[in-house]
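> call design_seq(struct)
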């Protein structure tokens, strides 16, 4: 299932290398950076208006979000499938860091109904079990080109009140590219549902912390990335 040929030869698989899956020959090119920035700005107001009307959303920040620039890693806790949209809409309109490129589980990315929209957003597919170097190759390239990558260090949605350990993905990106991290903490009193969303009972608080660098000097072996992952999660939770 993981090595189906449609993934290898999919038009939107540029720069993805998953073991036997090679995509050096590109059939189409990605839209230029201004295109995705334009698309982000185009959908900003509908998304922001939806959250403003249907939810009680509060935003606080220790940074001037309008002036942040890439390369940058945006690392957040993960509570719902809407988190990436919540974070994007919490920024003021037209920030210099748009677009924020998020990783997406490859089976969602290649689902035909979702693929065009995810591609326009700049989302890229990732897989587990193939090593960080291969799985996050696209993310590394985005950061090296001065872009912005959004990532959830916990790796999956967590239950409210639980504090799962961070996984190594965000730590690997920060260490490999020497990129700064903007920590984001999303607070919810209950998981989102259609009922509490459309009845306007959903309460969200988004807190942006101070941009920081991870302690690169403490990394001397791959196992040390686990400590770095815990360090990143601590910075998110202390906001």
């Amino acid at each position: 299932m993981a090595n189906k040929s449609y993934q290898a030869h999919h038009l939107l698989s540029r720069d993805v290398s998953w073991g036997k899956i090679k995509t050096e020959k590109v059939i189409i090119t990605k839209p230029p950076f201004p295109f995705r920035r334009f698309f982000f700005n185009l959908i900003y107001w509908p998304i922001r208006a939806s959250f403003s009307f249907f939810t009680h959303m509060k935003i606080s920040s220790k940074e001037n979000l309008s002036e942040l620039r890439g390369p940058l890693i945006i690392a957040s806790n993960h509570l719902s499938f809407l988190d990436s949209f919540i974070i994007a809409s919490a920024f003021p309109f037209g920030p210099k860091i748009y677009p924020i490129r998020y990783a997406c589980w490859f089976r969602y990315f290649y689902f035909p109904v979702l693929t065009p929209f995810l591609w326009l957003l700049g989302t890229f597919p990732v897989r587990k079990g193939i090593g960080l170097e291969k799985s996050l190759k696209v993310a590394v390239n985005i950061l090296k080109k001065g872009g912005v990558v959004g990532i959830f260090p916990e790796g999956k949605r967590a239950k409210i009140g639980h504090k799962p350990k961070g996984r190594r993905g965000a730590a690997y990106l920060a260490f490999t590219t020497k990129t700064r991290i903007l920590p984001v903490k999303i607070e919810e009193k209950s998981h989102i549902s259609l009922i509490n969303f459309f009845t306007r009972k959903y309460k969200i608080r988004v807190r942006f912390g101070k941009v920081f660098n991870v302690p690169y000097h403490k990394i001397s072996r791959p196992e040390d990335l686990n400590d770095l992952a815990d360090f990143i999660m601590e910075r998110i939770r202390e906001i």
